[in-house]
Amino acid sequence: MEASRCLFCFDAPCTAACPTHIDVPRFIKKIATGNLRGSALTILDSNLLGLSCSRVCPVDVLCEGACVMHRYNKQPIEIGRLQRAAMDWFYAHNPSLPVAPENRAKRVACIGAGPASLACAAELRRRGYPAVIFDRNPLPGGLNTYGIAEYKLRPPDSLKEVELVRSMGVEFRLGVEAFAKIEAIECEFDAIFLGIGLGPTRRLGIPGEDLPGFIDALRFIADYKTSSIPVGRRVVVIGAGNTAIDAATAAKRLGAQEIHIVYRRGEAEMPAFEYEYEIAKLDGIVFHWWTQVKRIHGSESVESIECARPDGTIFNLACDMVIPAIGQSRLVDFLARCRGVEVREGRVVINRETGQTENRKYFAGGDCVNGGREVVDAAADGKRAGIGIAQWLEADHG
Amino acid sequence: MADLSTLFAGRIRCPNPFWLASGPPANCGDQVMRAFDAGWGGAVWKTLGEPIVNVSSRYSSVDLNGQRMMGLNNIELITDRPLDVNLREIGEVKKRYPHHAVIASLMVESRREAWHEIVRRSEDAGADGLELNFGCPHGMSERGMGSAVGQVPEYCAMITEWVKEVARTPVLVKLTPNITDIRRVARAARKGGADGLSAINTINSITGIDLDTFIPRPNVDGLSAHGGYCGPAVKPIALHMVQQIAVDPEVGLPVSGIGGISGWREAAEFLLLGCQSVQLCTAPMHWGFRIVEDMIDGLKNWMDEKGFRTVEDFRGLSLPRIQDWKDLNLNYKIVARIDPDTCIGCDLCYIACWDGAHQCIHIDGHASPESFAEASRRRIATTPIPKLDGVAENGSHKTPPERIPCVDEDECVGCNLCWLVCPVEDCISMERVETGLPAQSWEQRMGSKC
After folding, report:
1. Which of residues 8-37 of A touch B (CB under 8 A)?
2. B325-390+397-449 CATH fold
3. Is the pTM of this model over 0.90?
4. CATH superfamily to which B6-321 belongs
5. Are the C-beta atoms of A133 and A145 separated by less than 8 Å?
6. What number is the ipTM of this complex?
């Protein structure tokens, strides 16, 4: 029904708005005709992470935000929901993707098993290049598996995409610190893709950060999704980005009775998307705007958090858990070991069309390049880099 | 307030021109009475005639973009109830609803005595008129009845004559569209003495095939048979055939219009082409008898708005507006104009004009749709990073000027295609441009050259 509402725009704005440029009208038309396999392959052709993107994409600022229906005062086509339908059908019906029949001699390593590397490795397999993905975590999928709120994307769905990539012939070496073995990797492979993402949550640099009960938001969400984790009765989350909201809503699901979000700027400056904010409000989370965290109090573990308002007033929030979500640090040390890869403001500098870095053997994409954006941005980067690597290996390298 | 009361063929009176067509909704007395209670002006009873046996299933349909039953197909035969019961119920309905029209639809084997008998018994039961079913295209036609009669003008004239030998009430002949020229049978009906015509009956059809079992629908134990097609999809065909018989000087009979009517708008169209009443079947099968409320209300409001007091005030008004192509003015020129303020930038008009028409809608700076699409591909080859590239994350909801197409009015042939595909109401308008030339038809142009 919804599929037949799509106007089938020529040179559609939704396609331009999608970082991976999925041919949206084409995949929707295929749903309308009942050609679900064709629809799914149209999506995956542009975006290997079509399944997770259909669940986590901020569609109102991407494809659905660009829908021409807005200009006709009509509801935009529910592109995200339609994509989810096509993806769910695909993964329920023997998912597989074509790969090139022959294996080429040149091999590529992808560091990090997150969306960027998955997209890159799949693209390389389509072109016949052997690819190996390294990750230090026991489970592949990167933040899709560990870092995105459970209600948006469950680990099994993230792992379905990983399995699809594995079925294309990509090798996974998990639990491996590539950081320590970069020289060996350089020797073994002809090109290296850095899809390493970002580091742990930044430190606040305030007293009390080492007390038990103080836990990095990404660690907290990862544990929530992949194992069991105790939660405090009263929880304070620092920061108001999407990760902060994910952590706060996860704490709610785990049974915290009182949840505060403390943010140094105002409601209008909040980086979280509107619908994330709505979910947080529905969960009864209390927001403290224009509030700076001064110190964490506690003798053996976290007991309260001291905050300051711009007018100088100081107040304490009693709590037994503090979750900082103020953005991830840069993996500067790692990048320093990748010789010749230029890093500016903590970001890897690349040729934006090919993903190639200053060291021509290295390519990069995803959060380590863009500073931390959506899954779909990483998928787009990975795909471009995959094509870039294949072209470089073919032309420059025999 | 407009008055819908109707007098068909000068002798059949009813409160409005809306009749149930002969079919499942007019299968029994209870249905017909409930329909009259809902507001229907008349009913043509499900065809009485030879004993038959029906199959299961019987119907299949064509859906379009979520709209169910755009077209309906059936392989049901005439009534499978005993004749005595039907006749008794016709009598009861007439007794309780003396001011509504009850027409008996008839179909028996092609013997004079058989027709005489069914005509007498129907009229004795109280029918206000008779409709000879020479149109049913499936099942009965294999036994020499229905459209088997309606496809041969001589048979049609002969049986109409037989009926007229004994009939006391008006006789309508129901025509089949499954014929090259419907006027030939209409003229034969007139020759046989018919008092009116009903048109059209259903169109031979196979609605579709199940792509898993390869069995066409409707499926009767693994087999299917062609059926009769009706519903909204057939309206344009019905309107054309009604117009043909309405203007034919050798026909000259009152017409009850049938085919794809689902509300007052379509009813008004058939009346504008000269029909004295209209008949519906698919629509009440789809939504029930209650739809007649809006048909009455809507038609009356429209008539009030247009200043028509009775149906006679506008009946046939559009007939003079349909002429042969050779009479159309070759010097009339319209062009498409796109309103940039309401254009939403879907560019459907652009690609339609390029691929499906005359290549006269353009996007600035691009020689073809391919170059436009290629430019877009180049523009989106990388993903902007807002913090690095300084681009706004949120686009406004205004159509970017580079997506608003423009019409080359010198090249535009005024074909209407862009206007038809545009999803926005009143965004594209077709406007007249002065050619400075006097009206001239093809016939006049060719004549002046001789």
Report:
1. 8-13, 16-17, 19, 21, 32
2. Alpha-Beta Plaits (3.30.70)
3. no
4. Aldolase class I (3.20.20.70)
5. no
6. 0.85
